[in-house]
Amino acid sequence: MGANEETVAITRVFDAPLRRVFEAWTRAEHLSRWFAPRGFTITDCESEPRPGGIFRLCMRSPRGEAFWVRGQYREVVAPERLLIACTMDDPQGMPSLEELIHVQFEKAGSRTRVRLNSSARGVSAAAAAMLAGLQKGWAQTVDRLGELFKPNRQKEM
Asked: With a threshold of 0.90, does the pTM exceed it?
């Protein structure tokens, strides 16, 4: 990839049925609980899981900075795959990254395997720092998803 591009590939197996994991990726009430790196909170979230539907959220950093993610679902094949195209704004509200997120879901016995592939490219001078942290940010985000399926948290979903 070029200097202003980054790709991420992550595979995780979650102790939850396929339907529940897919819903965690498509329902705003679930996305708002995990779709950000550690220490970040989601303060606003909209999700319309259909081709052309809205994907929008605000991640607030531990320092209080707001990072808006806005985009749309390009492909929704429940409960097998998602393709989400989005733009992330920097704390000043300027577009910084364009990202294409492809997620595949498959049964793994009573569990679910998720394969995430993300490709992002910087569209601003501030993008370099965001791209440098993309792998770590996605790993933390997907780990937070896994925490939703721990036995003491499952009743919340």
From this structure: yes
